[in-house]
């Protein structure tokens, strides 16, 4: 679900993973139509990294 949000509303994806400053920067980038594609790629990458970090944290707890 977060990946879909990252593609449609890249700035909002950053807020869902707890990175509000990056979300504001992404929103500024997304304001331009040319900046939408890099913002979506950046958000998708950040969501992917968030999921990887969560898996590592769970593995270290065990």
UniProtKB/TrEMBL annotation:
Give the subcellular location: Membrane
State the source organism's domain of life: Bacteria
Record's InterPro entries?
A: PMP3 (IPR000612)
Note whether Transmembrane helix occurs among the keywords.
yes
Q: Where are the transmembrane segments?
A: 28-48
**One Pfam family in the UniProt entry:** Pmp3
GO annotations of cellular component type: membrane
Give the UniProt keywords, A-Z: Membrane, Transmembrane, Transmembrane helix
Is Metal-binding one of the keywords?
Answer: no
Family label: Belongs to the UPF0057 (PMP3) family.
From the Swiss-Prot or TrEMBL record, give the protein name: Proteolipid membrane potential modulator
Source organism of the structure: Solilutibacter silvestris
């Amino acid at each position: 679900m977060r990946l879909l949000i990252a593609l449609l509303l890249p700035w909002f994806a950053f807020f869902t993973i707890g990175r509000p400053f990056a979300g504001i920067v992404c929103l500024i980038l997304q304001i331009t139509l040319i900046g939408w594609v890099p913002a979506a790629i950046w958000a998708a990458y950040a969501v992917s990294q968030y999921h990887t970090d969560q898996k590592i944290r769970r593995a270290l707890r065990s």
